[in-house]
Each structure stands twice: as C-alpha cells, then as structure tokens.
Specification:
Number of strands: 36
Structural class: alpha+beta
CATH topology of the largest domain: Rossmann fold
Distance between the termini: 57 Å
Shape: globular
Mean pLDDT: 85
Helix content: 10-25%
Strand content: 25-35%
CATH superfamily of the largest domain: P-loop containing nucleotide triphosphate hydrolases
Length: about 625
C-alpha cells in the first residue's frame, strides 16, 4: 500500500550550506506558528553546544502538515565528524533534498552523504542555496557550473538514470524564497518579485516517493534514534515499517547483548506513543506503517534494535556505519587538584558514561584500556571527541583525555601495515596556496587537484594520512588569516607513510605548586609562548606554555620578587606581559603529544605531563609517530 499522505525526507548538505536555515523557512511558511509567535533562528539547533558553535551536531526530527500531506523532515549534521548521525537516519526516509552552496558547489561531505543516499535508492531534489551571494550576482554562470559539477558527481557515484533526472530549485533560504526557474532569480534578489518556498514544497510532494508499506502485516519498527523524557524515561524513535502498534500493547525488543553479541529478546509494554507535530511530540493512541514515531516503555534499547509485535519476526540487519579511524584515551583525573572543581569520577562511572554515549551514537566505539582506569573511545574526528568532552564537563565531571591516535590495520593479503587516508579540500585565497601546500606536504600530503574558482580563490585537494590532519585545522586558519575553508572525507586505507613529527616545539612545564606571579612569567616570556595568566594555580608537571625550542623545559612560574630595602623609580615599575595564548579544548586536543594529558573539569582545561615529577621524565623529545 502506498501512503500518499506521507513523505519522509531528510535535508543533506555540507556544513554551513544552509540546511537548518532552510528547515526554519519550511516550518515558518507551513502555518505551524501563530501570528503572535516569533520562533528563534535555527530553531532545530536545540542543543546548547549547537547554538554556541553554529553547527548541527545531532540529527533531529520535525513534522509539517502541508495541504493534507504530512512531511516528516530530518535535519542532519553537515560536518564529517558527525557522519554517523546521517548514516543511521537515511534508512528512515524515502528521499532527500540535497542542498548545495551556489558558490562553493559540492564538497566532501556532500559527496559522502549523497553516496549513501543514492545507494539506498532515494530520489533527490537538488536545491542550489545562497543564490544571492555577491559572487553569483557578478557571475551568473557560476550557478550552471555548480549544477554541472553536481550532475557529474551523481554520475560518478553510480546514480541511476531516474535518480539523475533530479529537479532543480534555486533558493535563498535566509530570505525564505525559492524558484524552479533560473530566470526569476534576479527579480527575486532585487525584490521586484516576492517569493516563497512553495516550489520546494510542491517538488517534495510530486517528486519524492511516498512510503510503500504493509498496513496489515505484523508490527515492525527499527530504531534510528534515542531520546529521554523526565516523565516516561527512555524514548525509542524510528520508522514503522509494517503493521500497527497501539498504546498499552505488548511488544518485543529484538536486539543484541553488548557482552556476548548474541540476539536477545525482551518483552515490554508500549506505555506511550508519540508523533512529531512541528517541534512538539504529540501523544497518540496508534502508530501505523510509514510513520516516524516515538515509543516509550523499554529502558534497555539501542539504536538499530527492532521492535516487533511478536518474537517470531526476523529482526532488521544492524545499522552499519563507516568504521572509526581515531581513538582517544579517557581516564580518571589523577592530578593534585582532583575533586576541587567538579566530581572526580571513578573508573566505573567513567566507563558507564562512555558506554551510554556509544549506545546513542552508532558511529562511536568502546574498548578497554591498558589499565583498569583507562578506556578507549573510537570515533571519526577531533570535533566529535571535543563535543563529548564538553558535554561531560557541563555535567560536572572531572576526567583526563589523551591525544587522538590513528587506528592502523594489517593488510590481510600482503601483511603490510595500512593506515586511513583522507581527501582534504581547501578553498582559499590564491596568495596563500604556496604556504598551505608546503604545510600539507610536511604532513605526508600529496596534491591531487588544483582548481581556479575565480575572484582570486582556488580549491586545492590533498590525499593525506588521517594522523596528518590532527592539529592541522588551526594552523590552516592561521596561514589563510581566517579566510580559508577546510573539509575532509575518508578516502580509504593505504600503506603506512612513515614517521611524522607531531609537534615541532617543546613545552614549558611548572616544576612546583603555587600561584603564578607576573614577575616570574615576565622572565619566562622569552622562553616561549605562555598559556597561563598571573594568579593561576599550577602544580608540578603542569604545562604552562609552548617552548621556543624543540625540547621541554622545567621552569618556576611561581617565583616571587625578592624584597629589599632599596626603592627606586624603576625597580617597582609595572610589569606588563606581552600576552598569553588562550587554548580552547579543540586546540588542546590538536596540540598535545603522546606523553601528555588534558585535564578536563567543569571550569578548567589544563595541560599536564603524564609523569608529573620532573626528576622522573626526560626533557628531550623524540620523533613521534
């Protein structure tokens, strides 16, 4: 049976191409809000970290009722580190709106998500966004170039003839209008003609497939997301594939045991059922095939589980996502200031917290560490780790993390060590291309493409080992003076490229406990770049700055100025420091070496050596792999 009254779709694009802004426009023009309501911008970015950073981190559902058709829309992240969020959600939808920037064109994350969507047989609507950008107004042929490059990408990814016959919408999501005619774009930009998002609504209904379901079959639902309610507890979110489920009905969870990986069957009662209505969850008495709904009643569910009406139903295959490429060590806080700022959790609670995160995110993995206090979290990128660390800090927890390490493999045929290699795409002013190329080549990168974009900008493509990308983003932004765009996508595994220097400079390490003084820091400024200000509490083994030389240096940052009986105009002059480098959490993750920890507390992010005692560690640094 075709459910013509439903369309399940997702919005996919590269980061900062306007997905969330487009969803804002669709919600605003659907009649969802009353005249007196003033929804905030990026209303789908409900997470505090999402609003602070201006990016989408979690895939989220909303629902719009448009002319009698319910549009279930999923807003997906655009950053490659959160690709797992996109992969697990694609199975719940029947089509997608592919958003592409009118100037930047398709970028690595566009390719990554589009490939997954085409493989599932989805029909695609191409939406060229930001057609009002100055570069497009000056050069109208830019839009056609972007359309051509997107079509080439479809062909390259093996799209069928039907999928290649995609409709094209030209939009300015920020101003809430779109059109299917390129000739109307200048009039809409100038204001000569008023536009809406109705052409996109019409294409969603007319072009995207309606769900083809078995209404009379056994109830079956695969979970693609999890949530939590203070009132009813764990919420399981997914698409009903067949049959119906009613409130208070006995259902079965068909899943797998975490310990043994064997199939498990649990029976429970569906205590509450919900549907999405705009941004709200509305309680209903029944969910039927083709709908995306929410089910409460079972506290022990995982993403990928099958919820069925009987235990004889064959469960769906587990949701498969690309394997992690990085792992990071998490351990308990063993520093001298442990427990002063937050809750210094023990290893059991730390393990439980990491496992809980892995249950809600299929792109993450967990492994036991080398000792009982250490655990490995497996993921895809530094930003993915940084978001989790920041979330745990805001929960009031204290812990430590190490430097991300690339996961190497053995080639089964040759027995050779292989490592993940990524394709990095840099969009930057041409004047900086030489410095950027030298930086990538110093990290074992190979220039694979060079394209002129016009207006003095170029696009460089590099094939570079994943470990070469650790710490490169901030240096890239510094080299390009903040004008460069950077993105990457996993290319595959290749032969190990050899040793690579992690960081050129050593560290300035405090050799005693106390509060830093401006007198001591002023004397240390010529030794390197400081990370701490006067009055900061430090301890032996804590890193207070970056040394100007290659080796580490133990220093005294708490030394007071000795008092004498002599007073002159110059001896008591005001001490003015040149300034310190404020290290954000992401910068710390990029900067640290293998023999160092990041100490994370609710109020502080400190850098320290793994071995605190100065007489037990060497200051001579060797080449790190």
């Amino acid at each position: 049976m075709i459910r013509s009254d439903i369309r399940n779709l997702c919005i996919i694009a590269h980061v900062d191409h306007g997905k969330t802004t487009l969803v804002d426009g669709l919600l605003g023009q659907s009649g969802l809000f009353e005249a007196h309501e003033q929804p905030m911008d990026r209303v789908m970015d409900s997470n505090d970290l999402e609003r602070e950073r201006g990016i989408t981190i979690l895939a989220k559902n909303t629902s719009i009722n448009y002319q009698g058709t319910r549009l279930n829309i999923v807003d997906t992240p655009g950053h490659a580190d959160f690709g797992g969020e996109v992969e697990r959600i694609l199975g719940t939808v029947d089509g997608a709106v592919l958003l592409v920037d009118a100037v930047e064109g398709p970028l690595p994350q566009t390719r990554f998500v589009l490939e997954k969507s085409l493989a599932k047989g989805h029909k695609i609507i191409l939406c060229i966004n930001k057609v009002d950008r100055g570069e497009v107004i000056e050069d109208h042929s830019r839009i056609n170039d972007v359309v051509d490059s997107t079509f080439d990408l479809f062909v390259e990814l093996g799209a069928t003839e039907e999928q290649c016959e995609f409709p094209i919408i030209y939009a300015c999501a920020r101003d809430g209008w779109c059109t299917d005619s390129l000739n109307e774009v200048p009039k809409l930009i100038s204001g000569e003609k008023k536009g809406t998002l109705q052409p996109l609504f019409d294409q969603i209904i007319n072009h995207l497939a309606a769900p083809d379901v078995d209404q009379d079959g056994e109830f079956c639902m695969q979970l693609s997301n999890l949530s939590w309610s203070e009132y009813v507890g764990q919420l399981a979110i997914g698409r009903v594939v067949s049959g119906k489920v009613k409130k208070q009905q006995q259902v079965y969870r068909l899943g797998y045991s975490e310990e043994t990986q064997e199939q498990t069957i649990n029976r429970f009662t569906a205590t509450k059922l919900y549907k999405y209505d705009g941004l709200k969850q509305v309680e209903v008495d029944e969910l039927s095939a083709g709908e995306i709904g929410i089910l409460a009643g079972c506290s022990d569910v995982f993403i990928g589980d099958t919820i069925a009406g009987s235990e004889s139903v064959t469960p769906f295959p587990r949701i498969a996502v690309d394997a992690p490429t990085l792992k990071m060590t998490f351990t308990i806080n063993t520093g001298p200031f442990s427990g002063k700022d937050g809750e210094a959790i023990q290893s059991r609670k730390l393990k439980d917290r990491l496992l809980r995160e892995c249950r809600a995110n299929v792109a993450l993995g967990f492994e036991e560490g080398e000792s009982a206090e250490q655990f490995y979290l497996l993921g895809r990128g530094e930003l993915q780790f940084a978001i989790l660390i920041e979330t745990m800090r805001r929960e009031g927890l204290e812990f430590m993390v190490g430097r991300p390490v690339v996961m190497l493999k053995k080639d089964e045929e040759s027995g050779q060590t292989i490592e993940p290699v990524e394709t990095a795409v840099c969009d930057l002013p041409e004047d900086f291309s030489g410095d950027v190329t030298n930086m990538f080549q110093g990290r074992k990168g190979i220039l694979a493409g060079f394209d002129q974009l016009g207006n003095g900008r170029v696009r460089l493509s590099f094939d570079i080992p994943t470990r070469g990308l650790i710490g490169i983003r901030s240096r890239y932004l510094t080299l390009t003076r903040g004008e460069g765009l950077f993105s990457s996508k996993l290319k595959g595994f290749e032969a190990y490229k050899g040793d690579m220097l992690v960081r050129k400079n050593g560290t300035l390490v405090a050799d005693r406990t106390g509060k830093t003084t401006d007198y001591a820091l002023a004397a240390l400024e010529e030794r390197g770049t400081l990370f701490v200000k006067p009055g900061t509490e430090v301890y032996e083994g804590m890193i207070i700055g970056e040394c100007a030389r290659e080796n580490d240096m133990n220093v005294n940052p708490v030394k007071p100025k000795k008092l004498t009986n002599i007073r002159t105009t110059f001896s008591d002059g005001l001490i003015i420091l040149q300034g310190t480098r404020d290290m954000s959490l992401e910068q710390c993750i990029e900067w640290i070496d293998d023999d160092e920890w990041i100490e994370c507390t609710p109020s502080f992010v400190r850098l320290r050596k793994k071995e605190l005692a100065a007489n037990k560690r060497s200051v001579i640094r060797s080449i790190k792999k």
